[in-house]
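Posting here for the record, re: NAP.
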Amino acid sequence: MSKPHILHVVPYPKEEETSLEARFTLHRLYEVDNKAAFYKEYGATIRGISTRASAGVTRETIESLPKLEIISVYGVGYDKVDLEAAKARNIIVTNTPDVLTGDVADLAVGMLLMLSRRMSQAEQWVHSGNWVNTVSFPLSRRVHGKRIGILGLGRIGDAIAERLSGFEMQIAYTSRQPKETAAPDWEFVSEVVALAEQSDVLIVALASTPETQHLVNAEVIEALGPNGLLVNISRSSNVDETALLNALESGALAGAALDVFEGEPNINPRFLALENVLVQPHIGSATTETRQAMMSLVLANLEQYFEQGEALTPVY
Ligand code: NAP
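Prediction output follows.
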């Protein structure tokens, strides 16, 4: 039986592409110079798309593939897939939830520890020989026992809260409605500004949708205040970066730890000039174990769909 044809939008790590290629006929869009000619020749043979959360799929691509049935996203975010265009044609969209939750939560906690305890600066300080020549490294901020506000108690937000409970933190959160939480004392706060006001640290774990765009705005940042810290491991669109940079530069906010940025990897250079910012290159799910699990799920979604007509983790 011939292998189903798949449009592969952006590269995966080499060993992961091998497993995809064993099962499907891959057309690598990123190697195509003349897209119009490519779609004319192969467009009607392609039944599936494999892509990454960071690349998504455009309306133009969807509309160029008349036989498209399924889009399999490597990543949990599908905000870069044109859902309207996909839904209009009943095209299934799948992502890789759950398998990456623990890694992203680990990173959020690690970033909070690094930012608060200034571990990155402390290491630089040792490397540059200052330990020998100076009395001691400047004091940093305590982590345990602080008041945490989690914006979006979904899969990842919940895993972050579970981890931070082990640091004797007071946990409050906002979602669209109160949740059955792992511990009875996690407090639901419906208003984002009120959550920021009562928190020492605000952690953003929201989905990225038109409704969550800039949910963390100047007012929220002001409410978090000059002793407050912001951690964002979700998507840059959830935070107003200009307001954030202004607050970090003026001291209206104590610090931020960020894994996601507008226009990444070309991030705003103002971030790099700041001592009170910890930057990470969007590595929330970037461990060998998780990336293998994500790839298995991308494959399983495509295989199960082509064999049984149903995907494992459709997003709608
Ligand atoms: P999820 O389970 O869908 O959780 C999303 C949360 O956002 C839920 O708590 C949801 O509230 C909340 N939310 C959605 N719309 C909202 C609105 N209009 N107002 C207030 N809250 C709203 O997603 P997840 O798997 O935890 O992923 C969370 C985020 O992490 C996503 O943005 C994803 O793209 C990002 N992510 C980042 C990395 C990385 O490498 N840094 C890796 C993976 C994922 P309800 O509970 O009320 O529905």
